[in-house]
Amino acid sequence: MTPTNLPPSTVHRPPSVVALAGGVGGAKLADGLARLLPPENLTIIVNTGDDFVHWGLNISPDLDTVCYTLAGLANAETGWGRKDESWNVFENVKNLGGEDWFRMGDRDLATHLERTRRLKTGEPLSAITRDFCLRWGIRPTVLPMTDDPVPTIVDTIEMGELAFQEYFVHQRCQPTVKGFRFDGVERAQPAPGVVEAIRSADVIVFCPSNPWVSIDPILTVIRALTPNPSPAGRGGQDSPPPQGEGTGVRAAVAVSPIIGGETVKGPAAKMFRELGIVPSSLAVARHYGREILTGFVLDSVDAEWSGEICQLGIQPFSTDTLMKTPEDRLRLAKDVLHFVESLL
Amino acid sequence: MTPTNLPPSTVHRPPSVVALAGGVGGAKLADGLARLLPPENLTIIVNTGDDFVHWGLNISPDLDTVCYTLAGLANAETGWGRKDESWNVFENVKNLGGEDWFRMGDRDLATHLERTRRLKTGEPLSAITRDFCLRWGIRPTVLPMTDDPVPTIVDTIEMGELAFQEYFVHQRCQPTVKGFRFDGVERAQPAPGVVEAIRSADVIVFCPSNPWVSIDPILTVIRALTPNPSPAGRGGQDSPPPQGEGTGVRAAVAVSPIIGGETVKGPAAKMFRELGIVPSSLAVARHYGREILTGFVLDSVDAEWSGEICQLGIQPFSTDTLMKTPEDRLRLAKDVLHFVESLL
User: Fold this and answer.
1) Residue A92 and residue B86: Cβ atoms within 8 Å?
2) How far apart are CA A136 and CA B22, in angstroms?
3) What residues of B are in contact with residue A109 (Cβ under 8 Å)?
4) I need a surface site. Which of A111, A304, A336, B20 has the fewest CB within 10 A?
5) End-to-end CA distance of chain A
6) Rounded to the nearest 10 degrees, what angle do helices A88-95 and B106-120 cross at?
7) Reported pTM
8) A81 Cβ contact list (under 8 Å, min separation 6)
9) What is the 3-state secondary structure (H, E, C) of chain B?
């Protein structure tokens, strides 16, 4: 089967897709899906566990990466921030002795300033995001996982608990990870539209984002999975799990963020290792498990794991998953949708 | 007497000067004084009545204009903001539907961001200003008039009471002025160093700033003058007036912001007219009165008023007061200091 060679028009009656996304890899696949699906058939639910306040501003790095990518405004080289960016505010804040461990470009800063101003008026993040998307010409629905603060806390051996950006940017993922906590998740509500999107979706696609700190926060907010999965903790009472009774979801497919035992970007592989798990596509499939997943997309270089993934009760599908160019995003999105259709 | 032609070295034993300054004109004379006097002989007390919060940031327009001018960072053409400025944040905030009636450049914005961040930690404006001056290489002492909020409220016929920047920038000074109020001034304390600087000064120089909304707020905070001057209201009990018992001040000299019946920049002349007073150098001298002033510097084109100013009990001195170039600033500062020496 070579779905890559099939023209997009062969995607008949396109499925209704909910994509769960974190940062760069997630944004890229979401962009591929956005170019294939009618906008009303795609809702992207984005991790906000990495949101934080810096320079007094409310910053939503994953949400911005997804939106900038979909709007064609993203910096393709760094994977974060805006293209054609200038750094005049940052350089001058630095000259005044301000905090300079988190770089923010001038155009990017406008997003944080206007979001912060509107949040202070009491407007929820989801409404602000909807309006920003409209102004940026983004047609699929982009939803933060929740309007409530659910900061991801990384527990480390050397430094104890660290707020996510403190771990990720300030400490450059150096400390050894012991575990994760999604602070306040027990009080958080999914953002308006999240539950509805899941209920009416044919399929949920887990983009190739970090399972521990990008996808798990979303799953935890929608109460499908506890942060440290155990059979008892799976499948909450209040909200629909990705697959399950009471939802229209007929498939849930994850795309592995781990290729050949390593991550393209970010600390996912390092986190697996530090938690005592050999990082691999199989480890990612096991992390979610068959209670959550119907299918699993792994890279061709990892095709050797297909048998073991199948034995988990999850349908494997291997293809080229590395997204270096915009064409790669489209190609992978096509492959994922073809695979999904085979599962429905 | 042609003091302009005397070299700076003839200023022997330089006087200790406190300059009161508002925006552009005040900043220019302060800059001239800063180039003539040893830094320890100059303290500039700046109006903060026009401070306001915009985009969630604490903005001190007069303080910034004075500091940028002294640091050589000011935009000479606009009279506000920074030179070599870019507008990437502003344009992007505008694209997101944010408020765009108050323009802020990227470099300028860094000042507001870092000031706001530090104010939120509880640091007073005067301490933040001291540190910024150090980083910008400004050697004279620059003090905000107070660390407390004392917003200038402009009462207008058409729109009632307006916050100063709402009147000044958003409404472009169009509404007709009825009066002014310095909100909270009765609870405000002069910033640390203000009273001490005045007590140890030989002379107070009122820079050519708007009497109603730049100098009066400062005088009101130091309790030398009530906003609507009346004999009963002059000379408070708590703090030293510019001239008076208990202070070392031997002279107080104002430089007229009105030349030939008009202001170089800003609404001072319009304000005089709307309050029923013909705008002129004489009107400015009368506004302060001899209870406050020893001497008064007016432009050569207004020399005709010298006799009447003298009759007010205030020593007049006429010279070229227009400051178009950096050399003009130096020349006027020299003239003012020579005049001051003749009064001491």
Assistant:
1) no
2) 41
3) 89, 109
4) A304
5) 17
6) 50
7) 0.87
8) A68, A74, A75, A103, A104, A105, A108
9) CCHHHCCHHHCCCCCCEEEEECCHHHHHHHHHHHHHCCHHHEEEEECCCCCEEECCEEECHHHHHHHHHHHCCECCCCCCCECCCCCHHHHHHHHCCCCCCCCCCHHHHHHHHHHHHHHHCCCCHHHHHHHHHHHCCCCCEEEECECCCCCEEEEECCCEEEEHHHHHHHCCCCCCEEEEEECCHHHCCECCCHHHHHHCCCEEEECCCCHHHHHHHHHHHCCCCCCCCCHHHCCCCCCCCCCCCCCCCCEEEEECCEECCEECCCCHHHHHHHCCCCCCHHHHHHHHCCCCCCEEEEEHHHHHHHHHHHHCCCEEEEECCCCCCHHHHHHHHHHHHHHHHHHC
Residue corresponding to tokens 């000074």: B173
**In contact, A228 and A153? CB cutoff 8 Å:** no
Any idea how long chain A is? 344
Place of tokens 């480390």: A156
Amino acid at A268: A
Mutate to test the interface with A, among B82, B89, B111, B128 (most CBs of A within 10 A): B89
Low-confidence ranges of chain B (pLDDT < 50): 1-6, 9, 11, 224-240, 245
Rounded CA-CA distance B181/B161 in Å is 9
CA distance linking residue B56 with residue B262, whole number of Å:
35
* H/E segment holding residue A181: strand A177-182
Q: Which two tokens stand for residue A277?
A: 């798990």
Q: In whole angstroms, what is the distance from residue B247 CA to residue B245 CA?
A: 6
Q: pLDDT tens for residues B201-260?
A: 999 999 999 999 999 999 999 974 433 333 333 333 344 455 554 567 889 999 999 999
Q: Which of A56, A91, A107 sits opposite B92 (nearest CB)?
A: A107
Tokens of B54: 């915009």
CB atoms within 10 A of CB A308: 15
Mutate one of B96, B101, B116 to test the A interface: name it (highest A CB count within 10 A): B96
Report the DSSP beta bridge partners of residue B142: B44
- The answer to whether the CB atoms of A90 and B110 lie below 8 A apart is yes
Residue A68 · residue A54 · CB < 8 Å: no
**pLDDT at residue A205 greater than cutoff 80:** yes
